[in-house]
Amino acid sequence: MSAYLGVIGECLVDVVHSETQAPKAHVGGSPLNVAVGLARLEHDVLFAGRRGDDEYGRMIARSLRAQGVTALLEPDETPTSVAEATLDPTGQASYEFSLDWTLPPSDELDELIDSATAPVGLDLLHAGSIGAMMRPGEATVRDLLARRRETATISYDPNYRPSIIPNREEARRQVEECLALADVVQASSDDVDLLYPERSYEETMRAWAELGPALLILTRGGSGALALAASGTVEVPAVGVDVADTVGAGDSFMAAVLSSLRGLGLLGASNRPALRGISSEDVHGVLTAAAQAAALTSSRFGAQPPTAAELGAALRASGAREVGEVGPV
């Protein structure tokens, strides 16, 4: 058994509204989607996210069990968080939230992780989205990232929601504190536009790189993805697909990035120097796999990330060079 890959952040139920279908409830939340994406790519995954002892919470628990994800936290008495998602005619989603983000202390979480991952340990801790920004839990998340950085790769997705954190300067501070702890960062162009409207994407990526991450990735929807590493800048196009909706596409991208880095043997704190030296060729392969994973997710309704077999088959069909293994090593 390989070391676990861990994810901390919100889990919730998306109630999706569109012009063409009756409202449907789906298990979601960006961090939960990343955890499921990693599990479907055949990794052993630990997920730390709160849920209520209610029907939506039980729906989340059933989904995690079905995907083989180990849930770290038991349900509590607060209602499960809900996101009301409205799809526009192109499949893009906008959200309204009813959220609670209260966590146990970071030292307690640390002990729970050690117990759940013994004896193989934890090679990665991923955080992001609302869970890394919303009080009171955001401070606990950052403290846990700092604790786990000694042994694990830290990945981060600064998913900014002005409706939740209206003060942009406060949001920037939170993002930059997490960036200083992270090895791998993925952000969408929408998030960067909201956080730093006064500067270009390239300026933001260079500024972020100075804070310490080894690999920075900017996803730009139909315009593809851009990455910055010590070896240089790499760009890949989006994969053409008939879009059903884009729910979870960025999370599938993130999961495939992390899976590919695991396949290259670059996860775990001991591999931090090798990750910092990742070649442009390997970055291109990582982005290519991630773009294909996002396209597969966008081709079907709801956040349904690809399995390792589906992603591998799609990469082979496209003639793309496979990087490492799509799945555990």
Give a nutshell description of this structure.
The protein is α/β, with parallel strands linked by helices. It is built from 11 helices and 13 strands.
Percentage of residues in strands: 15-25%
Strand arrangement, major sheet: 5-4-1-8-9-10-11-12-13
- Count of helical segments? 11
Query: Which term fits the overall shape?
Result: globular
Structural domain count: 1
CATH superfamily label: Ribokinase
- The number of E-state strands comes to 13
Radius of gyration: 18 Å
- Please write the CATH class name: Alpha Beta
CATH fold assignment: UDP-N-acetylmuramoyl-L-alanine:D-glutamate ligase
| Mean pLDDT over the residues | 93
Query: In which range does the helix fraction lie?
Result: 25-40%
List the secondary-structure elements in sequence, H or E.
EEEHEHEEEHEHEHEHHEEEHHHH
Gross CATH architecture: 3-Layer(aba) Sandwich
Global structural class: alpha/beta
> Major sheet: size, sense and barrel closure?
9 strands, mixed
Give the terminus-to-terminus CA distance. Answer: 9 Å
Runs with pLDDT <50, length 5+?
none
Question: How does this model look, in words?
Answer:
It is a single chain. The mean pLDDT is 93. Helices cover 38% and strands 20% of the residues. It is globular and about 50 Å long. The chain has a single domain, classed as UDP-N-acetylmuramoyl-L-alanine:D-glutamate ligase. Strand 2 and strand 3 form a beta hairpin. The strands form two sheets. Strands 5-4-1-8-9-10-11-12-13 form a nine-stranded mixed sheet, sandwiched between helices. A four-stranded mixed sheet has the order 3-2-6-7. By secondary structure, it is an alpha/beta fold. The protein is built from eleven helices and 13 strands.
